Structures are given as C-alpha cells and as structure tokens.
Amino acid sequence: MEKQIISGLIEKGIIKEKKLKKDPGKIRWQYIITPRGIREKLKISHIYLKNRTQEFERIQNEIVKLKKEVFISASIKNTKDVKQRKVEKKTKSFYKGQVTIKILVTGSAVFIGFHVSQFLLNRGVVIVGLDNFNPYYDVKLKEDRNEILDLY
Question: Distance of CA 112 to CAs 65, 96, 109, 121, Å?
Fold first, then answer.
C-alpha cells in the first residue's frame, strides 16, 4: 500500500526519489518534495486551517449562546415574577414614605452598570439607563443585558 501511494505521488510530480547507498549491502531511498509538492502542501494546509478556524468560531459562538442562556435563566430565576415586580415598582419606593426617586445609570449595559441597574430595579427604584453601545465591549452582550433590564 505504501509503495502504491509513493508511486502515485512520484507520478504526479509531488515528490521525487533518490537512491542512497550507505552500506554496500543495503539500498535506501530518500524522498524529496518538489516545488509542486510544496504548493500542494500549502494548499492543503490552507484548507485545513480554514476549516479548523471555522469550527473554532462556531464553537465560540455556541459557548457565547450557552453563557447567555445560563445568564438569562439565572437572572430571571433570582428575581420575582415580572408582573409582580411591575406592581411592586409602582407601589414601592426607595425611601420610606411617598417619595419616588429616579436614578440615571450611565453604562447600564456594561458589567458594573448592568448589575447596579438590576440591584436598583429589584428594590423598586425607577432608573434611566444610558449606554452608547460602542464596540469596546461586545455589543451583542450589551443588547442582551439591555433586554433583561427591559423585563423590569
């Protein structure tokens, strides 16, 4: 089988063979890759790398989706029912008494701003979230966090 593969590569001009004589009783062969063989090897390597890169990106996207699912389900599980929260938000205030307070949270879709917003919303505070959704952090993640805040 090996001999057939090597013969086929020689016929296609991908490798060439050279006889080597080290010991008088033994004949050895050296197989040298040709310029055409180098081009073929590069082409195959490029295709392989492209396929592995696409697979890597697919797996990365799947991981991001799974993290979002876990994050959203944990976020909703740790808070009360959406309808109940809306009713409480209307009746409950941050301070004792009848004072209603509004707080401006800048960067409400990034990590700290999002969690501060969630903390305040869970306590009945009305917030105004502000974020420019610039690409410094993952914009899709910011949009997902914003959707979670919209549930309040």
Answer: 21, 26, 8, 14
- The 10 Å CB-count burial string (b at 16+, else e) for 82-118 is eeebeeebeeebeeeeeeeeeeebebbbbeebbebbb
| pLDDT tens digits for range 118-132 | 888 888 888 888 888
Task: Kindly report the pTM of this predicted structure.
Answer: 0.37
Structure tokens at 76: 């909703």
Integer angstrom CA distances of residue 17 from 24, 96, 111, 114: 19, 91, 62, 67
Q: How far apart are CA 111 and CA 138, in angstroms?
A: 11
Q: Residue 127: helix, strand or coil by DSSP?
A: strand
Q: How far apart are CA 3 and CA 11, in angstroms?
A: 12
In whole numbers, what is the pLDDT of the chain averaged over residues? 76
Q: Name the residue type at position 151.
A: L
